[in-house]
Structures are given as structure tokens and as C-alpha cells.
Amino acid sequence: MYQMKVGCVESQFVLEIRFFLTDNAICFKMVDSSFLLSEFSITIVPLPLGRKIEELDTMNNGSEKGERVVIHEDLWVQKGALIRNRLLARLGKGEVLFARKCSVREIETMAARDFLEENHILGYSRARYKYGLFNGDKMVAVATFSASRPMMRDHGLVESFEWVRYASLGSLRIIGGMGKLLSFFARCIKPQEVMSYADAEWSEGGAYLSLGFEIAGKTTPVGFYVDKISYERFPMKKLLKDKKYRNQELDEDSAVLLFNSGNFKFIRTFSFL
Questions:
Q1: Could you give the CA distance from residue 239 to residue 90 in angstroms, rounded to a whole number?
Q2: Is the dihedral of CA 222, 225, 231, 233 positive or negative?
Q3: Using one digit for the tens of pLDDT, what is the confidence trace for 54-95?
Q4: Sequence-separated (6 or more) residues with CB below 8 Å from residue 104
Q5: CB-facing half-sphere around the CA of 260: CA atoms within 13 A
Q6: Is the sign of the CA dihedral 210, 172, 235, 128 positive or negative?
Q7: Are residues 69 and 40 in contact, defined by beta-carbon separation less than 8 angstroms?
Q8: What is the pTM for the complete model shown?
Q9: Which of 20, 220, 239, 254 is 20 to 30 A from residue 97's alpha carbon, by CA?
């Protein structure tokens, strides 16, 4: 069972992030409760259960440099190994593979589901098109896309596809992986438009900008209730709409209400003559 050390200067949650960085020879400076990684222009912000992001902003007094990575305590407890791998890849501490050495092919739903449940913080979400990036016989990345939806834009009605998920294997960083999978999808389906979202707690979407996307706004934060004992998340929308959650009893004694930071929305248009 995960325990918090009450009364200590640093909680067990924060200490585990400190140990992780130290064990992987990642230099940092503590700024209040955050980890400033000057070499990478990244600040890791641990967000204890029950604390709001706005409170941490006030504590840090604008001292963060570059991009910010927010790590919620409940996700660290539930998906700590996945978050560690993602940080290692982000900080260049994992293995590196060049996409030019890989091939792309369509994969079955079960293969996409199993891979994304292990390697994407949000797990699998239903999608129409599913592709795997393979290094030999080994699948090292997965990208999924929705079916088309008609969207009204300034220049008229377009058929828009959502890039639903992308994840690479473990701490592996694949140079050109996103681009190769997107190019394969574009050649096969010839979309007029592809839209996607970048988690604002992890990045500002630089990878999308490098692929020719343009920023199209930011979504509002999403609310969750988190069970204080199990650290399980219950999205507010599902609690209200999904039948399987209607009998779930959550109150201030058993759960904490939290909000994420929303997502940056990106759109890329394509022209196939």
C-alpha cells in the first residue's frame, strides 16, 4: 500500500521523484516543491492529491524555466512505471531508434489496445485506423486515428480525422516516429485535415508544430474524483452519464476533486491533387 509520510519536509511522493532523478544521473535544483532541470529547460511539478495547480503557481512565484511537466500523485501511484519511462525518453535517458530503420503496417485492435494500455498514460481509446511501427518483428510504436467527421472551417466543410493516440515502447525515443506514422496514414487515407491534442501537463505541442500542425486553441480542464484509498480516477462526466458509475458513492471524506490542465489543440490540413 502506498503511504504518505505525514509531517516530513518532503512526502514519499516527492521523495520518489527525487530518488528517480538521482538514480538516473539527472541534475536538478529544488525550487519550493518543484524540480528545475536547467539542462533540459524543464520543471517537474509534483502535484500532491488535494492540491491545486494554481496553489503551486503561487508558491513557485514564476521561477519555472521552459516547459513544465505536472505529475499528479494519483497517476504516479497508479502508473508510476509508465511515467518514469516517459520521463526517461523525454530527458534522453532511454534508448534511441531512428524511424528510417522501421516499417509501418496496419495492426489489429487487440494489438493496439495491449500496446497503448502499457505505454500511453490514457490507455487505449476506440479508433478506426490503427498502425504499428516495427523494427524488424518488434512493434516499437503505435498510432491510432478516428474515422472522418465533417467539420465546418472558414474555407468550407472538410472531412476531419482525429489523431487519437501515439505512444512508443517504454523509454524508447524514436526519432521521426510520429512523422513516419502520420505520413503512412496520409498516403493511405488521404485526409483533408487531421486534428490532435497535446496534454498541457506534459508539453506545449512542439512535436506537432514540427510536423506542420498549427495550434488551434486550448481545451478547458477536465474534472476527476480520486478515491483517497485506491487512488482510482473517476471522470466527472462519466459519473454523471455512464450507467456503470451511477452507483459509485464519492464524497469529501472518500474522494478528492481535481482538475487537469486541459489540452492544446492542433490541426494540419492536407492537399492531395
A1: 33
A2: negative
A3: 666 555 544 455 899 999 999 999 999 999 999 999 999 999
A4: 131, 132, 133, 134, 180, 181, 184
A5: 23
A6: positive
A7: no
A8: 0.88
A9: 20
Sign of the torsion formed by the C-alpha atoms of 19, 24, 27 and 28? negative
Write the DSSP assignment of 74-120 as a string of letters.
HHHHHHHHHHHHHHHHHTT-S-EEEGGG-EEEE--HHHHHHHHHHH-
71 and 21 Cβ atoms separated by less than 8 Å = no
d(CA 244, CA 79): 23
> What is the SS3 assignment for 121?
coil
Average pLDDT over residues 23-46: 94
Exposure class string for 102-119: b at 16+ Cβ within 10 A, else e? bebeebeeeebbebbeeb
Q: At residue 4, does pLDDT exceed 60?
A: no
Q: What is the Cα–Cα distance from 265 to 216, expressed in whole angstroms?
A: 5
**% helix, strand, coil for the chain, step of 5:** 30, 35, 35
C-beta separation of 70 from 45 below 8 A:
yes
- The answer to whether the beta carbons of residues 83 and 121 sit under 8 Å apart is yes
Q: What is the pLDDT of residue 154?
A: 82
Single-letter code of the amino acid located at 114: D
